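for the writeup, i need someone to sanity check this before i put it in the appendix. the sequnce is what the collaborator sent (i think, or maybe the updated version? ugh). structure was predicted straight from it, no edits. if anything looks off just tell me and ill rerun, i have time this weekend
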Amino acid sequence: MTYFNNVTNIKYEGVNSNNPFAFKFYNPEEIINGKTMEEILRFGVSYWHTFTEDLSDPFGDGTAIRPWDKYQGMDRAKARVEAAFEFFEKLSVPYFCFHDVDIAPEGDTLKETNKNLDVIVDMIKDYMKDSKTKLLWNTVNNFSHPRFVHGAGSSNNADVFVYAAAKVKKGLEVGKELGAENYVFWGGREGYETLLNTDMKLEMDNLGRFFHMANDYAKEIGFDAQFLIEPKPKEPTSHQYDFDVASGYAFLQHYELEDVFKFNIEANHATLAGHTFEHELHYARIHNMLGSVDANQGHPLLGWDTDEFPTDLHSTVLSMYEILKNGGLGRGGLNFDAKVRRGSFTPEDLFSAHIAGMDSFAVGLKVAQRLIDDKVLEKVIEERYKSFNEGIGLDIVEGNIDFHRLEEHALGLKEIKNESGKLEQIKATINQYLLTTFTSE
């Protein structure tokens, strides 16, 4: 059975194409600095938003029209697998990602849940034999079910901690079986609402123990995927333990896990943390902690996780700049943790949304590579910090000075001259590159 009868395989047709089901900028075979676009961008499809999302919101029922929703239970789960691999093939995407409950329904017991997972994992494994699409990462949903009302690895209830650990154990086994390149931990409810009833130290210590046990078991079964932490500042708890990359990095350092984990950074989560996407990418990069990306964007007028498909070209340029400066994403990728808008409810809209996101990051890639080739921002930064390349500044950087000499130097200064940061000029230059990259070809 086919599920997307109105869409054929998506091809690159170039910027002048009027075909809504064609790439205008993403040419997977185009070589950028020695690698193909496909190799650099490593796009992934999120199973949850694409195949299980019904587009409901707090004010209305779901609007999504999905051919597989005529089934129920395990029959629907099997139909979703069929639809997913048809979608992957037509979009020619190299990766996908999922939570355990995305691919198989939970049963009345953990044993029944695992049995359902086994059936669907076997089916996915069989489909993967004839597909180019691989598993970028998997994870488990330890946040939706009422049992996780007080958290999972940070729960006050030891039985919940145990249940969450058992789910992760199964998730690691599934990841190994399907060849996942990464494994993600998103602490959906790893946080607290109020300190009035919270033992923060115990919760954080337990979460550290949880991660160590997960790493130990991955080693035990020979699952060598990169572990990833996905920071988020709020929603659903008011205080998340993985607020942003900086707090997550401090957590990993404190519990001696910084050599085990990297970060899976989501654009919309950066926004909610009061940061830009590129800030989070940059912070992770300079600490060698950038692992993978959940590619989406938030709405500037809305204060929650809207998970929109990325179309802001300025953002994709600056994010790809950080990714390229990182030397790429290694085993990570650009997973579209994004959902179509409530009014975009047809199956065809799923393709349109992914095409828009893939084209947007292709633009970002090409512009960012030009900026790097021309050393645009490097020259700006080198000029701005030139005072630290000689004299007293170089002594500071090399650690060859103390407060006595600094005071002596300061007392001898007649005046201090600062230079313009030229921010508006820099932004105009980026716009110039953005607007001329494709017209100059």
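The chain has 16 helices and 14 strands. Residues 23 and 352 are 10 Å apart (CA to CA).
thx in advance!!
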